[in-house]
Amino acid sequence: MIRLIRLFLMAITFSAPLAVDAAPVTWDFYETGCVAVAGGYPCTPPKLPFLLATLVLPDVTSSGSARWSGDPAAAPVYTGTDFALSFQTMGHPGLPTLTQSFPGDRDCGGGGSICSFDVSWNEVGGRLLAVAVSVLGFSDELHVDLTGGYIGSDDIYGGCALSQCRVSGFWQSDLAVPEPISVLMLMTGILAAWLASPLQKYRILSP
């Protein structure tokens, strides 16, 4: 029995993810539902789930914030690690990629301009524990947390056309997720081998 416990502990150890060098982690927000709440058009994404936005972080553990009120006299304030936030559009200029190097658009003029933003995130060990994205553009806007929020567009964004729409969704990373079933199969094999061992058969059959 002691040997079995040792094998179990070894299996847990070797099934745990190995430490790797720091590498960017991509988090995609997929829209799974959309309902127009203002405006005269229904929300009709081309498909569901629909890729709405992408947040790229420098490593599996990252936290920070990016804020700008839109005041031309004030510079954006960035804290924490680097980031890159991009937005999936559907044929029009849309919102540009937001990074910590963005100095602020002083006049917010024309499509494709970001007029204000408030973004924060907390990622620990490859898990996105908290995220809040609020970006207002000249033609489009996005406001989502871990499970949804709302979007708006003077053109079309995420299927929301000339309207403001409530959306639901989820964030998914590009990290490889270990399958629990593989650990279960390994433990089943170890237990079967232990039960089939001559010593164990002797213990079971002996009075």
Element layout with pairings:
Blueprint: H1 2-15, E1 25-39, E2 50-57, E3 62-68, E4 77-80, E5 84-87, E6 98-99, E7 114-124, E8 127-137, E9 140-144, E10 148-157, E11 160-173, H2 180-196, H3 198-205
Antiparallel strand pairs: 1-2, 1-11, 2-5, 3-4, 3-7, 5-6, 7-8, 8-9, 9-10, 10-11
Helix pairs in contact: 1-2
Explain how this protein is built:
- The protein is an alpha+beta fold.
- The protein has two domains: about 1-10 and about 180-205; about 20-175, no CATH class.
- The chain has three helices and eleven strands.
- The chain has helices at about 1-15, 180-195, 200-205, and strands at about 25-40, 50-55, 60-70, 75-80, 85, 100, 115-125, 125-135, 140-145, 150-155, 160-175.
- It has an eleven-stranded antiparallel β-sheet, with no helix packed on it.
- A hairpin with a 3-residue loop joins strand 9 and strand 10.
- Helix 1 (about 1-15) runs antiparallel to helix 2.
- The radius of gyration is 25 Å and the shape is globular.
- Residues about 5-20, about 180-195 and about 200-205 have low confidence and may be disordered.
